[in-house]
């Protein structure tokens, strides 16, 4: 699929490496799984696969007893929309944390579906603080929508702070953990999260195409059971009924479900989700340590283990991203105001400290050649 | 992925064969593609892939000049819902051909989205005729929704007849070709089709996860440009704007898009879509010829090349499907009233006359053992 495998340059052993947030570098085990015939799925064999995936995902999210998983064939945005429309309705007033492109997406979804909402807007370099939240205390909001990690800026929000806020204000808590699941510690039960959104192509490092929504018993009973989905394709009621026997109402991305099971079993066998999160944290710290020797910066707010936003001393981010890609090293550009001075480096997927070292050496050379 | 690869029985060389309608048997070339790292996609390399896919798909559908493709990460039902909501609105009155489960789905989608509709209901063994259509002539319908091949019963509808009906009655024509594209001849231009829906896991024989909607210039100008999508995830306007540069608004199932390009190039290199349709027709006729020697029947209405519904002399369809699966030969059960006496055999995917022969021999043995 990648053209670079024919290269005979210095990176021949590992011709292209994805430091992108999604798709991420897939492991040989996942690739072996992906290369197999997709089997028929309307049978017990596939039901068993789905049910085992659900058990693992709920366990890894520390979901409260009685939680359920909805398995969607959709990008993360599809799952965000499905969650907004099945878990909120016109009687709600949502508070949306808008710290970048993905927060704005939650806001746009509320707008599209007639859900009243206020947006807590952050500057791209501004940390979400108790002081900023205080303005919304006791203001009658019924739900908080947050991207635990705002992937466009790199900020990881303070989950205990948000959880306490929701508890005090009796708000349901909807968390997009698309780029945090398996990278940052998440405890649905302890943090009273009512809906958690996960996608295949981030820290799970699978092919993009499926997303998962985990629902707490409270969310299931008090909201999903009461709210009528405006769409058929994203109707949680239908998924939940079919899901009790490990099936989906419509043909799922069967191949990626098999990749998911293989990955979840491997996380389990390697010591569980805490070990996986620790591995990612170590990799992130390793990278952040290495770039300290270059003339670059990083944001001052808390960062997810999933990625580091690198801030350059000169506006040469576009050239830097392109030059690294020519070396087979793929990083994510930033959009908007961050675009000229920043790019993003992921620490999720099948990466090692050796990959970090290779990237940082290449980055140093590129910056030197650009006079930055 | 399939467990059967460890089997050491008589079918060891090809341990499991999918005669199912989707997923279908994938070719070695597709599997090789599927087993490769999913690359980063927000760049020109991926844009070029998407644009080449669009050119091929429009060509293979004989789409009129100026048609466009929308690339969705969703099952076929997602694409059906996206089409209904972006191409119809409350000012419409649709006529839905309901000849089985998939026709009922179009009807349910109209219902969910407040689109007035009348259903032309067929019995499971009833052919759609000019006489049945006549009752709806000049009745003020604005759109016809039809599954070209009603996959739950096996019926292929008469496209020229439906097209003439739409032309006479000035109706827009929406065709679900999910199980017909690349299996039955389709000419969007000649049949004045305004929207054509395709999915990855049928005759294209790719992993399930992406669906395509092809839109005629008339549909684009007169409807899509005017109608506001109720959802963000399925908002065609957004896909069409991004699609001009070969991108999608949200992360697509990148891996399957690469499978798609490889498959489209292979169809092109093998003589084009007409050759592929002819190959499937030959395979279907071969199968239908072979079962003529068994004590089974087939429907009397026109059938798609994509599958044959086999009608058994006794109500042993469930046992038959299970016994064949034990041999590694997977066929589709039928739902509802057809369930006890019928099952379905697909002729799409990487199948050969040798596979047909193996299946028919096994079927003969199973029926004999069941006394049917």
From TrEMBL, chains A, B:
Keywords: Aminotransferase, Pyridoxal phosphate, Transferase. Its cofactor is pyridoxal 5'-phosphate. The modification N6-(pyridoxal phosphate)lysine is found at residue 202. Gene3D superfamilies: Aspartate Aminotransferase, domain 1, Type I PLP-dependent aspartate aminotransferase-like (Major domain). It comes from the Bacteria. Residues 43-222 form the Aminotransferase class V domain. It holds the Pfam family Aminotran_5. GO terms for molecular function: transaminase activity. PROSITE patterns: AA_TRANSFER_CLASS_5 (PS00595). Substrate binds at residue 344. Signal peptide: none annotated. Belongs to the class-V pyridoxal-phosphate-dependent aminotransferase family. This is Alanine--glyoxylate aminotransferase family protein. It comes from Thermophilibacter immobilis.
């Amino acid at each position: 699929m990648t053209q670079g495998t024919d290269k005979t340059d210095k990176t021949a052993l590992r011709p292209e490496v994805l430091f992108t947030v999604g798709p991420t570098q897939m492991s040989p085990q996942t690739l072996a799984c992906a290369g197999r015939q997709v089997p028929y799925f309307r049978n017990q064999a596939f039901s068993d696969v789905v049910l085992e995936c659900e058990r693992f995902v709920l366990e890894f999210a520390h979901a409260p007893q009685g939680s359920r998983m909805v398995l969607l064939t959709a990008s993360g945005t599809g799952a965000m929309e499905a969650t907004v429309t099945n878990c909120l309705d016109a009687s709600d007033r949502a508070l949306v944390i808008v710290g970048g492109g993905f927060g704005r997406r939650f806001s746009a979804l509320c707008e599209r579906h007639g859900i009243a909402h206020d947006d807590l807007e952050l500057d791209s370099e501004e940390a979400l603080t108790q002081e900023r939240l205080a303005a919304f205390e006791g203001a009658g909001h019924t739900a908080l929508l947050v991207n635990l990690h705002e992937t466009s800026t790199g900020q990881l929000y303070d989950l205990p702070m948000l959880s306490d806020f929701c508890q005090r204000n009796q708000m349901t808590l909807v968390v997009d953990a698309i780029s945090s699941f398996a990278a940052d510690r998440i405890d649905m039960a302890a943090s009273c999260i009512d809906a958690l959104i996960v996608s295949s192509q981030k820290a799970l490092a699978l092919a993009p195409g499926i997303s998962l929504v985990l629902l707490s018993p409270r969310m299931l009973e008090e909201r999903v059971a009461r709210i009528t989905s405006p769409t058929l394709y994203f109707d949680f009621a239908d998924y939940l009924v079919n899901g009790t026997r490990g099936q989906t109402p419509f043909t799922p991305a069967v191949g990626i479900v098999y990749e998911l099971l293989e990955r979840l079993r491997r996380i389990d066998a390697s010591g569980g989700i805490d070990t996986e999160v620790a591995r990612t944290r170590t990799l992130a710290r390793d990278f952040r340590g290495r770039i300290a020797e270059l003339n670059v910066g990083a944001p001052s707010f808390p960062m997810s283990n999933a990625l580091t936003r690198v801030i350059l001393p000169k506006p040469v981010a576009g050239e830097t991203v392109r030059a690294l890609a020519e070396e087979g090293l793929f990083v994510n550009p930033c959009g908007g105001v961050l675009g000229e001075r920043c790019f993003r480096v992921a620490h999720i997927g099948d990466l090692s400290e050796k990959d970090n070292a290779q990237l940082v050496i290449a980055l140093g050379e590129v910056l030197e050649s650009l006079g930055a």
